[in-house]
Amino acid sequence: MTETLPPVGIDLFDVERLVLTEGMEPPLPPQDAEARDQVWDMAVKANPALFDGPAVACRGLERSAPGVLRLSWVRVTYRHYALRRVPRATALPSLFVNTVQPTDDGRVLAARMSPSTAAPGRWQLPGGSVEPPQDGAVLDEAALAGQAARELAEELGVAAVAEDLELWVVTRGENGSVGLTYLAPPLPEATLRAHFAAAAVAERSQGREPELDAIVLVRSPDELAGLNGPHADYLEPIVRRFAERR
Questions:
Q1: What is d(CA 110, CA 94) in angstroms, rounded to the nearest whole number?
Q2: Are 195 and 156 contacting, i.e. CB atoms less than 8 angstroms apart?
Q3: Which of 89, 91, 136, 200 fits as disulfide partner to 32, beta carbons 3.0 to 4.6 Å?
Q4: What integer pLDDT is reported at residue 135 of this predicted model?
């Protein structure tokens, strides 16, 4: 029996298998589309680094059996999320991947978004929005793990492969956004800091600002309180979950 999962604050779901189904984006009234475009254009004027690239939104999340989550997704672009600022309009929740990158002494890496991003100064896990498949490819568990591995390489310089990452937990935030959180193999602190510094140098050499401008390593959710700036809503529950597993 399929069980629709109602939102209750910040939700964490254990998952043994993820079933993905592509759906269609709901039709949008013309007035909402016009208002969305106006909001997006204003956002781009304020931050020219914003890019209306392809993305994936979550149409629905259900539990179809113990440990099995069924996720319906649709193709959108980042402009879609400007609907969040249109009164009485409904934006589909975003879908993203992120990764718990531990150290070999049991801490978790948290990263701060740079000023040029859509969430400047926010502390979160390394990761990013899910991208839709191209050229006849499918969006499945292997593809999602590959996207998480790519984000680790781009943002932290950590050359993980998809097979190294374990889908650890699924989160749903206060605005309904769904996150697929992976667990990476532990690495020494010195290695992580060296990779992060090298990744930042590589980005700047290409004339781009890195997406992340700082990293910290925390052992417990209490240590997050000392980080100035906004925090991703899932960050404290994820760090707490990791601390409790030890």
A1: 21
A2: yes
A3: 89
A4: 85
Buried b (16+ CB within 10 A) or exposed e, 159-197: ebebebbebbbbbbbeeebbbbbbbbeebeeeebeebbe
- Integer Cα distance of 164 and 160 in angstroms: 6
What is the pTM for the complete model shown?
Answer: 0.92
Give the pLDDT confidence score for residue 175 in this predicted structure.
Answer: 83
Q: Which domains does the chain carry?
A: 3-245 (3.90.79.10)
| The residue to which tokens 């993820």 are assigned | 18
Please identify which residue in the block is written with the tokens 């759906």.
23
Three-state SS sequence of 190-201: HHHHHHHHHHHH
What is the model's pLDDT at position 144?
96
> Half-sphere exposure of 244 toward its Cβ, with a 13 Å CA cutoff?
7
What are the residues facing 18 on neighbouring strands? 69
Which pair of tokens denotes residue 89?
A: 């309009």
User: Who contacts 133 (Cβ-Cβ below 8 Å, separation ≥6)?
Assistant: 139, 143
Strand 178-183 relative to strand 95-100, pairing: parallel
C-alpha dist (Å) from residue 60 to 9, 17, 148, 176, 233? 17, 16, 21, 10, 20
Instruction: Report residue 177 CA to chain centroid gap.
Output: 9
Residue pair 25/74 in contact by the 8 Å Cβ criterion: yes
Name the strand (E) or helix (H) holding 68: strand 68-77
How much is the pLDDT for 10? 84
Where on the phi/psi map is residue 113: left (φ > 0), alpha (ψ -120 to 50), or beta?
A: beta
Walking along the chain (246 residues) 10 residues at a time, the average pLDDT comes out as 56 92 93 96 90 94 90 95 93 96 96 90 96 92 96 93 94 92 97 96 90 95 93 96 86
DSSP state of 153: H
